[in-house]
TrEMBL record:
Protein name: Dihydroxyacetone kinase subunit 2
Residue ranges constituting the DhaL domain according to the UniProt record: 5-198
Domain of life: Bacteria
GO cellular component, one term: cytosol
Gene name in the database record: dak1
UniProt entry keywords in alphabetical sequence: Kinase, Transferase
EC number: 2.7.1.-
A UniProt-annotated Pfam family: Dak2
Upper taxonomic lineage: Bacteria, Bacillati, Actinomycetota, Actinomycetes, Kitasatosporales
GO molecular function, one term: glycerone kinase activity
GO biological process: glycerol catabolic process
Top class in the EC scheme: transferase
Length: 202
């Protein structure tokens, strides 16, 4: 079972990872966007950890709802509403259960990813965060307890964005010139799924 503490740990690990990798995320965004992805997420996840300390949400669903709300409120770029929607939809799906099973988390994340696609209108192959998130939720649907496998699927998905031509977001303005660069959002998504696997080990 995954309790509230597990979810706090997951988001705290996300914040640490985003903090460490912010320069790289911004560098990737400099190549095909506006060079702010690292700064955007660093600001957003700093607000998430501050809110977790301040409000002490009492269930896994409440942790995700709070985190999603903070990302929407503090991240200026496209990734804020998208990641916010991911976490808020997943949080809503978990309801107020004090503990959830990995299968329930897998189903909740599927709802979150579907909501991201609904909001942004992107599909796998469009060179966005969905190229890492979709393979991760597919992996979790098949093996809900294998967080490490989901993390590997997300990392592979992020790498696979390199040759893609962007069809959504700022990078799409570059057309063919977006090819040959890894998508910043897919890269940060892989970090978030890796943090899930890390939360399980700690
Ligand atoms: P902005 O582009 O507004 O500066 P960020 O740099 O924080 O926002 O985030 C850019 C990332 O957001 C992209 O690399 C991509 O993965 C993701 N993204 C942008 N638009 C969409 C969309 N419509 N659907 C899914 N993901 C998107
Ligand atoms: Mg940007
Ligand atoms: Mg921006």
């Amino acid at each position: 079972m995954l309790d509230t503490d597990f979810f706090r740990r997951w988001l705290t690990l996300c914040a640490g990872s985003v903090e460490r990798e912010a320069p790289r995320l911004t560098e990737l965004d400099a190549a095909i966007g506006d060079a702010d992805h690292g700064a955007n997420l660093r600001r957003g996840f700093a607000a998430v950890t501050a809110a977790l300390d301040r409000d002490a949400p009492g269930s896994p669903g409440a942790v995700l709802l709070l985190a999603g709300r903070q990302l929407i409120a503090t991240v200026g770029g496209a990734s804020g509403p998208l990641y916010g929607t991911l976490l808020r939809s997943a949080g809503k799906a978990l309801g107020d259960a004090p503990e959830v099973t990995p299968a329930e988390l897998a189903a909740a994340l599927r709802e979150g990813v579907t909501a991201v696609a609904g909001l942004g209108g992107a599909r796998p192959g469009d060179k966005t965060m969905l190229d890492a998130l979709e393979p991760a939720v597919v992996a979790l649907a098949g093996a809900p307890e294998a967080f490490g496998r989901a993390a590997a699927a997300a990392a592979e998905g992020a790498l696979a964005t390199v040759p893609m031509r962007a069809r959504k977001g700022r990078a799409s303005y570059l057309g063919e010139r977006s090819m040959g660069h890894q998508d910043p959002g897919a890269t940060s998504s892989a970090l978030l799924v890796a943090a899930l696997a890390e939360a399980e080990r700690t």
